[in-house]
Amino acid sequence: MNQRDGTSAEESVPVTTLQIGDRILVRPGQRIPMDGVIQAGVSSVNQAPITGESRLIEKEAGAEVFAGTINGEGSLEIRVTHLVQDNTISRLIKLVEEAQERRAPIQRMVDQFARYYTPAVVIVAALVALIPPLFFGQPFWNPTPDQFGWFYRALTLLVVACPCALVISTPVSMISALSAAARNGVRIKGGAYLEALSRVQAIAFDKTGTLTAGQPTVIAVRTTTCAAPNHLIMDACRACDDVLALAHAVERRSEHPLAHAITSASRERGLEDRYPPAEAVTALTGRGVSGVVQGRDILIGSHRYFDTTIPHDSQHCDAAGQDASTGYTPMLISEHGQYLGTITVADSIRESSRAAVASLKGLGLRAVVMLTGDQRATAERIAADIGVTDIRAELLPEHKVAAIHALQQQYGTVAMVGDGINDTPALATATVGIAIGGALGGTNQAMETADITLMSDNLRQLPFAIRLSRATMQTIRINIAFSIGLKLIFLVLVLLGMGTMWMAVLADVGTSLLVTLHGMRLLTYKNHEHAS
User: Which of 206, 242, 423, 508 is catalytic?
Assistant: First the structure.
């Protein structure tokens, strides 16, 4: 829609040509292309790709919308407030690039040691061969079969001091650990990230899609005739089941996320065939949906809509208000204008979240933090259920980056776990970025940005990955200490004339073999918490 010349005509244009003040039309189901302010229309917007909010947000004239979010059932006329290079998606990309540029490459301690160790050993060997014969009259060659000259000792020293075992101990352990991680569903992009994971002191979680499934489910049903004021969906109640079946008949052909929650709950309870599909189904933009089920006029609407149009029980009204304030989504149902009941929908917690958080605390992490774009009341409810005590709520992507920086200043090494495009800047900023994969997992952008990917939605893989990283570093330290210690013993024997060439070869090859076998033990490392 172009109004620069005073006319009002619809035309399709590239987003790069849009200017601040232009008006654009976003139809139902379309992705909002630019940041802006709604000028006309009412709809529900899925802001999860940007803010991570777990429920649809009702929008009307005057409300702000973000590029990359998804429009719901109504058409929206939006005034552009940012150029394409300054909109929300562009800012996300810039945040990721800046964070990746700031990431310093991790230098391997063993590589640095070997860089100076090898030339130092050669110099020492040359001094051993030359100084005693030149300044102390010692034999250069072997004068007798039972006495070794200093040239022979120098050659033996070179063999003993060869850093083969020292250098090979790290890559063998790392490759074994990476292989074990892959076998248990954890993809780690390199040994540097495995090492960094072993030093993590604090871990931050995104909420929606990470600690929760990111998919709404029916959690409770209330009706005017049911004895239980807060009927849980798993309980048995004829009146509540009937309300759920009526709602299913109206919503069964809808693609709306809340409709999916109703239809899934109906199928689980065997109610999908109680009523035929509704006729004359009509979407009431920003208010709900209506339909006729076997001659009965059924309306499913928001609490706000019922407050202004359909009288309903005061206790149910208060309960619906309480649900909304804690992040649930109440949907009220009426028949012929008479209130029947309420179906409450909420994002469900992943089955593995509680166990994973408990395991992480048991590993001695100094902080387990939740970062979310959701309202604080919603975040607090989820956090209390899972066991997280440190909550940062109502965060946009740039606020999550700031939160990661604050955690790094407080704790040092910080990991971030997320699944969405809105989490990518924080994933790139954290010392270790961890993405959720799997059938219900994260976006390709999150997995591409992250250093580690959990290949299923089972968060128990995270404590396993941390334990594996710590075991790997412990194995490497043992191998290094063993390699250096054994070589020092043989070096002393060589310098005292008690070491022979075959002993040197045995020390070098034997040490290499032992540290290799010790490192390969990591191949058998198991995830004992893995849920089948």
Answer: 206
